[in-house]
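Notebook, p. 212. Picked up where the previous page left off. The plan for this session was modest: take the two constructs that came back from the sequencing core last week, fold each one, and keep the raw output in the notebook itself so nobody has to go hunting through shared drives later. Recording the first one now, exactly as returned: residue sequence, then the structure token string.
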Amino acid sequence: MRSALTGPRSLAADLVSVFKLRIGVVITASALGGIAVTPGPLPEAHRVVFLALAVFMASAASGGFNQLWERGLDARMRRTARRPFVAGRLRAGPSWYVSILLLLIAGGGLAAAAANPWAAGYTLAGALTYAFVYTVWLKPRTSLNIVVGGLAGSFAVLAGAAAVDPGLAPEPVLLAIVLFLWTPPHFWALAMAAKEDYALCGVPMLPVVVGDAACAKFVFAHALALSAIALLPALFSMGAVYLVAALVGGAWFSWKCWLLVREPTKKNAIRAFLASLSQLSLLLTGAVADRLLTGIG
């Protein structure tokens, strides 16, 4: 599994890359957001920690599968040509698939133990959606690939919500819709910056199929929609802290996307991509802070 040329520090960096642990942090934060916005008594602290770890493990498994499966495609793209499997720092093989499967099973089992079968089901559904529905099936075939792929984040929200109430209140359902709408513009903006790579490899990402100007309009429309829907939990049980975070994050993201519509350049695409991260971070932090400061009984 490991190349003889890989030292301990570089191995750690390679594992962060292979398992897409940065994405795992976002997915885990989405699960915590699902817990925060769901009315009802919070689970015990250790159950929250174990559920977060379970979601993180499942996300890592799906990220590892993505890089293992796509190593041939990654070798043809400048943006991904230095990834561990492509560069030979890690050797692809059956043992990786076995390890990824075991990690996924462990994540699902831990979610069931920490919360309930509903939370485990949503945790596994998110990982399997990203690994198979997005990576294997849709990504090489349709420009709608990441639209469905956005369900991975939505399932994480529902996993967290199910730990509080498997019945799913309106607030986590709305937050799951926000995550569903957030993923496409987040990734489309990045895809605009890497359009030449995707075009060269024949991957039908939206900017390759419809062009930058039209793609920017789709990005802006999604940003407006998710920013508006993100406000709706405040009509139910969420308080002022959440509302302010949703307003500020949504306005910032929408503004950057509007600038992308006006001038669909790589620089503005990266700015919109970074703004999407800021928006989601504000929203989820606001949800958790609101719950901790005001409580939702």
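Okay, moving on. Second construct, recorded in the same format:
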Amino acid sequence: MQLPDLDLLQTFLTVAEHQSISQAAQTLELTQPAVTKKIKRLEESLQVPVIDRNARPLQLTEAGMILRDRAPGLLSDARKLASDIRSMSKSGLPLLRIGMSDTLSEILGAEFVGGMQSYAHVVELKSSISPWLETAFRARHFDLAVDSPPFVDTQQIDTKLLFRDPFVVVVPTPLAEKPLEEILRTENYVGYGRSTKFGTSCTQLLAQLGVDRPTRFNFDSTQSLLRFVQAGYGWAITTAFCLLQSPTALKDVSAMRCPNSEPREFYLLNRKGEHEELAAAAAQRFSTVFNQLVDGPWVQIAPRTARMIAEANVDLRPAQSVEPLDE
């Protein structure tokens, strides 16, 4: 069986819509014999009848009804493909708009965008916070997005796991020698606002650690939060990626893995049936950039933080030994 010609599919859909060959011929500005001939050619290519010629008025066979339901999608995809190819031939590869969190944009955005130049004529990077990222993606402000669960609905979206970001407890260096249980019980907690997915996750971890004391200080930015911890006003829950945003603060704080926590995960989002090749290329580029940074610059900036990240992503990285941290 051969795939049917797109012109034959359009003729068939017109006949099915009007339930009449004569009316379809008028719509298509063809003669009735020409329409009949096209239907026969379609049936020959499919090797199955699509019109019941014994029925009056015109009716579709079971195969014809299946074709009527699925053919519009085939035609739509074919037209979109043709449009994309024409666009690429006129102006090069298309514009790629991608959204990601402020954290990711700062620690690997430049390297990612630089590596995507061969896949898109223009790469436009937008950074913000969740849940705005997912909302903007669903509103088609972006072609691709990188975000963390939970997602509102993934039925129309393909998701690909890119990397994991372990949660950490950060304390001022003078408190680093104290047992963590004592710090949690006696020192002030410095937290994120709850208007984001990330802030909500940190609040949930606070409860899991058994801390029921009120939060004394809240911040929207990691830089401000870490400076407050650095100044000795309390301890905080954040992530390894966030620590890399403010390397100067790492000189006066100590970070350890957050007990009873699972890393947050970052996924690449693309709408099903759209930009699938670009999404695959973007995922590969993210993987390459991530591994290069973990094994290079991030080790130089914060060796302990880089090792925590490597441990959380063992199954997503090239086979190599990761020396476990001594807690």
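Notes on construct two before I forget. The two ends are 64 Å apart (CA to CA).
Flagging for discussion at group meeting.
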